[in-house]
């Protein structure tokens, strides 16, 4: 295959807030297949940064579920809970560049700032940060720092990034987002002291040399934020492929909240076959191993030649 030759490193990065369910297995299977179809390396990273939401034992449980489904990583899994020093170093680098600042605002403060500007609240839509604690707006003004935020506008201006930020998804096609108006200065370190997903994922994808991110479509709108952070930290931007979601009874993304049950380990073939259906792969034949082999071939024919990383 023409595109093999360059290094391919992919990963599946579950948050251990519970065991894998039918939806999360789709992303796992897709990232595994994509790595195999490109002759690449496949990694698993347990994203246990959001400690309050992590379930004890879920990380180990997920690794066991993956192994039962024939999806074993090529290198020992990373655990984000052990990566605090790397996240701290990255934050320091952003602070030194003038691209991150401490923030004292509570959710109510953010709400009040928008209301004061006469911007009505849209239900279920999180407001972008209004910039109250930006250094040029007066900083903390004596209030205690709670979170650390990325100064998105400054990064974009200093690095000359395009507005809107455009990126390519191998399945969804060309995408664009004005990060500053859509999400604003997002959090790097949370008010409760834990590292934010955006920072941890970008630092680790960089440290692990990830060239290809294959994950669920619900994460697609995080991509522009992550690209801005990659640029700020001098990291390359991987290729992206966001996979179809499994919907729950309520039509929303399948989650524990709408009836997702942990995958049963007693019938792994049924579980991977159901995930393969979502990915439009041919029906199962034989056991898990022979089905996986067959799907690799089908996958190769489908997602050939991803555009080179930019
Ligand atoms: N840990 C994130 C999640 O489970 C996914 C991270 C990623 O694939 O970028 O939702």
From TrEMBL:
Nucleotide-binding as UniProt keyword: yes
Residues that bind ATP: 256
Ranges for domain Glutamyl/glutaminyl-tRNA synthetase class Ib catalytic: 9-258
Family matches, as InterPro entries: Glu-Q_tRNA(Asp)_Synthase (IPR022380), Glu/Gln-tRNA-synth (IPR000924), Glu/Gln-tRNA-synth_Ib_cat-dom (IPR020058), GluQ/Sye (IPR049940), Rossmann-like_a/b/a_fold (IPR014729)
Binding site residues for Zn(2+): 103, 105, 129, 133
Cofactor requirement: Zn(2+)
Motif ('HIGH' region): 14-24
Sites where the protein binds L-glutamate: 11-15, 47, 197, 215
Enzyme Commission (EC) number: 6.1.1.-
Motif ('KMSKS' region): 253-257
GO molecular function: ATP binding; glutamate-tRNA ligase activity; zinc ion binding
Keyword Ligase: yes
Cofactor notes: Binds 1 zinc ion per subunit.
Record's keyword terms, sorted: Aminoacyl-tRNA synthetase, ATP-binding, Ligase, Metal-binding, Nucleotide-binding, Protein biosynthesis, Zinc
A single GO BP: tRNA modification
Cellular component terms (Gene Ontology): cytosol
UniProt xrefs under HAMAP family: Glu_Q_tRNA_synth
Family listed: Belongs to the class-I aminoacyl-tRNA synthetase family. GluQ subfamily.
Function noted in UniProt: Catalyzes the tRNA-independent activation of glutamate in presence of ATP and the subsequent transfer of glutamate onto a tRNA(Asp). Glutamate is transferred on the 2-amino-5-(4,5-dihydroxy-2-cyclopenten-1-yl) moiety of the queuosine in the wobble position of the QUC anticodon.
Protein name, UniProt field: Glutamyl-Q tRNA(Asp) synthetase
Organism from which the protein derives: Tepidimonas taiwanensis
Gene: gluQ
């Amino acid at each position: 295959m023409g595109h093999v030759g360059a290094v391919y490193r992919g990963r599946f990065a579950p948050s251990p807030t519970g065991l894998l369910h039918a939806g999360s297995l789709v992303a796992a299977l897709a990232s595994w297949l994509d790595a195999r179809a490109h002759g690449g390396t496949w990694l698993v990273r347990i994203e246990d940064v959001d400690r309050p939401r992590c379930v004890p034992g879920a990380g180990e449980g997920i690794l066991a579920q993956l192994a039962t489904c024939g999806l074993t990583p090529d290198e020992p899994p990373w655990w984000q809970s052990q990566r605090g020093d790397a996240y701290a170093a990255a934050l320091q680098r952003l602070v030194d560049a003038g691209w991150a600042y401490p923030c004292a605002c509570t959710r109510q403060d953010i709400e009040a700032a928008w209301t004061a500007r006469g911007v009505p609240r849209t239900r279920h839509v999180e407001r972008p940060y209004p910039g109250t604690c930006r250094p040029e707006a007066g900083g903390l003004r004596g209030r205690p720092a709670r979170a650390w935020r990325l100064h998105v506008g400054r990064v974009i201006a200093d690095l000359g990034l395009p507005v809107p930020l455009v990126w390519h998804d191998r399945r969804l096609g060309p995408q664009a987002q004005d990060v500053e108006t859509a999400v604003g200065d997002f959090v790097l370190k949370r008010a409760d002291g834990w590292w934010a997903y955006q920072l941890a994922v970008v630092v680790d994808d960089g440290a692990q040399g990830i060239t290809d991110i294959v994950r669920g479509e619900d994460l697609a709108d995080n991509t522009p934020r992550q690209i801005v952070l990659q640029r700020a930290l001098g990291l390359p931007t991987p290729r992206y492929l966001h996979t179809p979601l499994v919907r729950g009874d309520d039509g929303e993304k399948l989650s524990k909240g709408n009836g997702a049950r942990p995958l049963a380990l007693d019938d792994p073939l049924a579980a991977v076959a159901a995930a393969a259906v979502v990915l439009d792969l041919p029906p199962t034949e034989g056991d898990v191993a022979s089905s996986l082999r067959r799907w690799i071939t089908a996958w190769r024919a489908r997602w050939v030649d991803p555009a080179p990383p930019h």
